[in-house]
Description:
Layout: H1 2-6, H2 11-21, E1 24-29, E2 36-44, E3 50-57, H3 65-80, E4 85-91, H4 95-103, E5 107-111, E6 116-122
Parallel strand pairs: 3-4
Antiparallel strand pairs: 1-2, 2-3, 4-6, 5-6
Amino acid sequence: MLEVIGLGHHPRLAIEASFEYSxxxxxxxxxxxxxxxxxxxxxxxxxxxxxxxxxxxxxRMLDIQQTFIRHSREWLNxxxxxxxxxxxxxxxxxxxxxxxxxxxxxDFLREEPEGYQEFVIFNNNNSTEE
Length: 130
């Protein structure tokens, strides 16, 4: 939520827009109280070969962190689909997310906007031959 606010967006509007524009979107629900743990998906970009991957999590992510990490790569593959890569930005202060993205294979590009790091994850299951 803090990352979304830092980018100048309202969290509720950000999640609504993320679902509206996504080609694929999913929600993780708590099995104990049926509350939302996180939502994630992928939106198209200006290039048909590049997707914009997103994840909006709640504090409940800490309750499922091991399961979440264990299944992250398979869900990333699901989101990748036919994209050559996925991109987005992450707050440079969000060290846990940056470490997780690096583990997923993210390459960090430039600081844009200030305080945020652009990243790209390439699809190793997709040939880039044209």
